[in-house]
Amino acid sequence: MGNMPGFVSIREVGPRDGLQNEEPIPTEAKVRLLDALSRTGVRRIEAVSFVHPKAIPQMADADEVWRRAERADGVRYSALVPNIRGAQRALAAGFTEVEVVVSASDTHNRRNINRSTDESLDDVAELVGLLHDAGAQAEVIVATSFGCPYEGDVDPVRVAGIVDRVARDGADRVAFGDTTGMATPRRVREVVTAVRDRNAGIPVLLHFHNTRGTALANLLTAIELGVTEFDASVGGLGGCPYAPGASGNLATEEAVHMLHDMGIDTGVDLAALIEAAELAEELTGRRLPSGVLRAGPRTRLTPLAS
Amino acid sequence: MGNMPGFVSIREVGPRDGLQNEEPIPTEAKVRLLDALSRTGVRRIEAVSFVHPKAIPQMADADEVWRRAERADGVRYSALVPNIRGAQRALAAGFTEVEVVVSASDTHNRRNINRSTDESLDDVAELVGLLHDAGAQAEVIVATSFGCPYEGDVDPVRVAGIVDRVARDGADRVAFGDTTGMATPRRVREVVTAVRDRNAGIPVLLHFHNTRGTALANLLTAIELGVTEFDASVGGLGGCPYAPGASGNLATEEAVHMLHDMGIDTGVDLAALIEAAELAEELTGRRLPSGVLRAGPRTRLTPLAS
Fold first, then answer.
1. ipTM confidence
2. Does residue B168 belong to any structural domain of this protein?
3. Which residue of B has its CA nearest to A2?
4. Is residue A305 part of a domain?
């Protein structure tokens, strides 16, 4: 298993990536979920996205959600934006960490926003500059890093080249999105190794979906390779509306449960997190896919008297 | 990732462990599923169990299912039995590979059959002798090897001691059951290492449930440790009726999908296996938990024209 890290940093993405891909819920419910997550001990939360309400009605009330949320000390909050208008809204709302997205697959990028990956990278460079000028940090999320539903495999060298480019353009961090759950231990190894080989010197975060059951195997592979930052979504909320066949994100409580069992700290109180997952299930009104939400942690025993 | 094996042997347990833990389906349906699986290229199938029909009505027609099945050349079929009566039925039906179960947890064993683990090990020794006398091979399945829902952690040294005992008693193989999905990469490493350290010289097979999302991470850990035999259940059929909170078995197509992606052969035709999983879903009439059944393999692309 190699040397395991002592701490793994989880970014909770349920309030944004999760809820954005569920049926819309009321503003009040979003605030309740965000507040519950802020009390779990998780250190980072992707809180909202600033997107056009016609494109993504689930985030139409992002400003109000963020204004009403009880922000916790010691939690870093971020927002996702698709363009300059979104970045301006995020900055106006007071965010100091902002994410922008580009797809490693040309076809996927064109299908989503009708631009090539290279054209989007020019836009990203402009956004990074705008965010930095305002004193905020910029993370670039590279979607379809582990495969594209239209093209199939995406060359890890292409992914590494995108990382070089965004690092040169000043991005503070890069995240690799497993947009349609095509990541496997092999693909994780290939992408992480290709990026490492280029030595772009930029922090890396991985974002897995559990579409084909591999999310925790991918996480395990990545921490063996020294990656210590991951996205996860409470209860496994969400998916990707533009990606056919995609199912939910890696459930935060499944990630935390496995990591704690391995003696790796996350700062998260698993019991509080499971309560937040129960709340997410109540608020969305659908059965969420998380096994740890369903069965509880392995340490939850069955009373003999039953 | 270390040295990966070139071949991993999957035993398909859907017809027995799967169907035994679903609502009963007609004999004809069981035969159809068994025949479909025999055509997937999988090398081993757990076909039926010979248990008392009042205890497990799902297997009441085991003799007839087995008689009507079209057995494929090159496939090894096995049956599970709880006692001497079951072993006699399995032998009379022509089985030459038979599995018997004992629980590593005393409490779990007592709850199931009102005997201590040690008492059951005496029974197992008798069963192994009976099977050998009839020219059949005997596998001992050690349930709750990675944890007990009543006791919690089970000492890996205790598990290793049970392996010593059954090896001395002549068992041909031993399997470790993750009865309620308490296995994690850490527990897999501990159990496999403890057993290895005792050097009992007996082939080892692992049986995982995906109760808490860890099944493929456990599989990955085990193959890194050199284990090359695993149970899996088509579509993720089944669970464990005696184990509160347990959910389905590791889905065969999720295991095969990840292994093939790693360049590890299983002999299985994944497309045929997914068809069998679709059949399992049709026959049981419930949505099965397998992600690869739902989304298809990562190589199944989305047409751009859509």
1. 0.96
2. yes
3. B1
4. no
